[in-house]
Specification:
The protein is an alpha+beta fold. It contains four helices and eleven strands, in the order αβββββααββββαββ. The protein has helices spanning 2-5, 78-86, 92-95, 141-151, and strands spanning 24-26, 40-42, 44-50, 66-73, 76-77, 101-103, 107-108, 119-124, 127-133, 159-161, 169-170. A hairpin with a 2-residue loop joins strand 8 and strand 9. It is globular and about 45 Å long.
Protein backbone atom coordinates (compact mmCIF):
# COMPACT_ATOMS: atom_id res chain seq x y z
CA UNK A 1 0.00 0.00 0.00
CA UNK A 2 2.92 2.36 0.68
CA UNK A 3 4.28 1.80 -2.85
CA UNK A 4 0.86 2.63 -4.28
CA UNK A 5 0.44 5.80 -2.19
CA UNK A 6 3.71 7.12 -3.64
CA UNK A 7 2.83 5.91 -7.17
CA UNK A 8 5.81 3.54 -7.16
CA UNK A 9 5.83 0.06 -8.68
CA UNK A 10 5.87 -2.81 -6.19
CA UNK A 11 9.53 -3.86 -6.03
CA UNK A 12 10.54 -7.33 -7.19
CA UNK A 13 13.45 -7.46 -4.76
CA UNK A 14 14.20 -5.48 -1.61
CA UNK A 15 15.42 -1.92 -1.99
CA UNK A 16 17.80 -1.00 0.80
CA UNK A 17 19.98 1.87 1.89
CA UNK A 18 22.23 2.66 4.82
CA UNK A 19 21.31 4.93 7.71
CA UNK A 20 24.42 6.10 9.56
CA UNK A 21 24.41 5.66 13.32
CA UNK A 22 24.41 9.47 13.58
CA UNK A 23 20.86 9.35 12.24
CA UNK A 24 19.74 7.33 15.29
CA UNK A 25 17.76 9.26 17.87
CA UNK A 26 17.28 7.21 21.03
CA UNK A 27 13.86 7.09 22.67
CA UNK A 28 13.41 10.12 24.91
CA UNK A 29 16.13 12.13 23.20
CA UNK A 30 15.35 14.84 20.75
CA UNK A 31 14.35 16.82 18.92
CA UNK A 32 14.38 15.54 15.35
CA UNK A 33 16.40 18.06 13.37
CA UNK A 34 14.55 18.98 10.19
CA UNK A 35 16.64 20.38 7.32
CA UNK A 36 15.38 23.85 6.43
CA UNK A 37 13.25 23.88 3.30
CA UNK A 38 12.86 20.10 2.99
CA UNK A 39 9.60 18.16 2.78
CA UNK A 40 10.25 15.61 5.56
CA UNK A 41 7.98 12.57 5.91
CA UNK A 42 7.59 9.95 8.66
CA UNK A 43 7.62 6.19 8.01
CA UNK A 44 7.05 3.91 11.03
CA UNK A 45 8.88 0.58 10.68
CA UNK A 46 9.82 -2.52 12.60
CA UNK A 47 13.56 -2.55 13.24
CA UNK A 48 15.30 -5.93 13.27
CA UNK A 49 18.36 -5.83 15.54
CA UNK A 50 21.15 -8.16 14.45
CA UNK A 51 22.69 -10.25 17.24
CA UNK A 52 25.91 -11.48 15.65
CA UNK A 53 28.16 -10.82 12.69
CA UNK A 54 26.77 -12.51 9.60
CA UNK A 55 27.45 -12.72 5.86
CA UNK A 56 25.77 -14.73 3.06
CA UNK A 57 22.95 -15.87 5.32
CA UNK A 58 20.35 -18.24 3.86
CA UNK A 59 16.69 -17.50 4.46
CA UNK A 60 16.44 -20.79 6.38
CA UNK A 61 19.02 -19.61 8.94
CA UNK A 62 18.27 -15.89 9.01
CA UNK A 63 16.08 -15.71 12.13
CA UNK A 64 18.85 -17.12 14.33
CA UNK A 65 20.92 -13.98 13.65
CA UNK A 66 18.31 -11.71 15.28
CA UNK A 67 18.84 -10.46 18.84
CA UNK A 68 15.61 -8.49 19.02
CA UNK A 69 13.60 -5.65 17.64
CA UNK A 70 12.92 -1.93 17.96
CA UNK A 71 10.31 0.43 16.68
CA UNK A 72 11.85 2.90 14.25
CA UNK A 73 10.73 5.94 12.33
CA UNK A 74 12.48 6.30 9.00
CA UNK A 75 12.48 10.04 8.41
CA UNK A 76 12.80 10.92 4.73
CA UNK A 77 13.43 14.24 3.01
CA UNK A 78 10.97 13.39 0.26
CA UNK A 79 12.00 16.25 -2.05
CA UNK A 80 15.65 15.19 -1.90
CA UNK A 81 14.71 11.53 -2.39
CA UNK A 82 12.55 12.37 -5.43
CA UNK A 83 15.37 14.35 -7.04
CA UNK A 84 17.86 11.54 -6.34
CA UNK A 85 15.50 8.94 -7.78
CA UNK A 86 14.92 11.02 -10.93
CA UNK A 87 18.69 11.34 -11.43
CA UNK A 88 19.42 7.67 -10.73
CA UNK A 89 21.30 8.59 -7.56
CA UNK A 90 21.29 6.89 -4.13
CA UNK A 91 18.98 8.05 -1.36
CA UNK A 92 21.68 8.50 1.28
CA UNK A 93 21.21 12.24 1.72
CA UNK A 94 17.40 11.99 1.88
CA UNK A 95 17.51 9.28 4.56
CA UNK A 96 20.74 9.93 6.45
CA UNK A 97 20.45 13.31 8.14
CA UNK A 98 21.40 13.40 11.82
CA UNK A 99 18.39 12.36 13.99
CA UNK A 100 16.52 10.88 10.98
CA UNK A 101 15.91 7.51 12.63
CA UNK A 102 14.16 7.80 15.97
CA UNK A 103 14.44 4.36 17.57
CA UNK A 104 12.83 2.79 20.61
CA UNK A 105 14.55 0.88 23.35
CA UNK A 106 15.63 -2.65 22.48
CA UNK A 107 12.92 -5.35 22.56
CA UNK A 108 14.36 -8.86 23.14
CA UNK A 109 13.50 -11.43 20.47
CA UNK A 110 11.67 -13.53 23.08
CA UNK A 111 9.10 -10.75 23.62
CA UNK A 112 7.78 -10.81 20.05
CA UNK A 113 6.17 -14.12 19.21
CA UNK A 114 5.78 -13.47 15.48
CA UNK A 115 7.43 -10.37 13.98
CA UNK A 116 5.48 -11.02 10.78
CA UNK A 117 2.19 -10.39 12.58
CA UNK A 118 2.39 -7.33 14.81
CA UNK A 119 0.63 -4.01 14.51
CA UNK A 120 2.66 -0.88 13.94
CA UNK A 121 1.14 2.54 14.43
CA UNK A 122 2.28 6.15 14.55
CA UNK A 123 0.58 9.22 15.91
CA UNK A 124 1.71 12.78 15.23
CA UNK A 125 0.46 15.30 17.80
CA UNK A 126 -2.19 12.77 18.90
CA UNK A 127 -3.45 12.16 15.35
CA UNK A 128 -3.21 8.56 14.05
CA UNK A 129 -1.21 8.68 10.81
CA UNK A 130 -0.13 5.09 10.20
CA UNK A 131 -1.52 1.77 11.43
CA UNK A 132 -1.15 -1.67 9.88
CA UNK A 133 0.27 -5.12 10.40
CA UNK A 134 3.72 -6.41 9.51
CA UNK A 135 1.89 -9.29 7.79
CA UNK A 136 1.49 -6.91 4.85
CA UNK A 137 5.24 -6.61 4.23
CA UNK A 138 6.24 -7.47 0.67
CA UNK A 139 9.44 -9.23 1.80
CA UNK A 140 9.83 -11.43 4.87
CA UNK A 141 12.47 -10.71 7.51
CA UNK A 142 14.50 -13.82 6.51
CA UNK A 143 14.44 -12.63 2.89
CA UNK A 144 15.61 -9.15 3.89
CA UNK A 145 18.48 -10.51 5.98
CA UNK A 146 19.50 -12.92 3.22
CA UNK A 147 19.43 -10.23 0.52
CA UNK A 148 21.37 -7.66 2.53
CA UNK A 149 24.05 -10.16 3.59
CA UNK A 150 24.70 -11.13 -0.03
CA UNK A 151 26.14 -7.64 -0.41
CA UNK A 152 27.47 -6.65 3.00
CA UNK A 153 28.39 -8.08 6.37
CA UNK A 154 25.97 -7.26 9.17
CA UNK A 155 27.39 -6.81 12.64
CA UNK A 156 25.98 -7.13 16.13
CA UNK A 157 23.74 -4.14 16.77
CA UNK A 158 23.03 -3.31 13.13
CA UNK A 159 19.36 -2.56 12.49
CA UNK A 160 17.31 -3.45 9.42
CA UNK A 161 14.18 -1.29 9.16
CA UNK A 162 11.72 -3.56 7.41
CA UNK A 163 9.20 -1.37 5.54
CA UNK A 164 6.39 1.01 6.29
CA UNK A 165 2.61 0.76 6.10
CA UNK A 166 0.49 3.23 4.15
CA UNK A 167 -0.13 6.64 5.64
CA UNK A 168 3.28 8.25 5.42
CA UNK A 169 3.10 11.99 5.50
CA UNK A 170 4.74 15.28 6.18
CA UNK A 171 6.03 16.08 9.63
Amino acid sequence: AHAKELNNPVPQKPIYFIKPTTSYLQEGDGPILLPKGSDVHHEVELGVVIGETCKNVSEDNAMKHIAGYALTIDMTARDIQTEARQNGMPWSEAKGFDTFMPISTFIPKSQIKDPHDIELWLKVDGELRQKDSTNLMIFSIPNLISEVTKCMTLEKGDVIATSTPKGVGAV
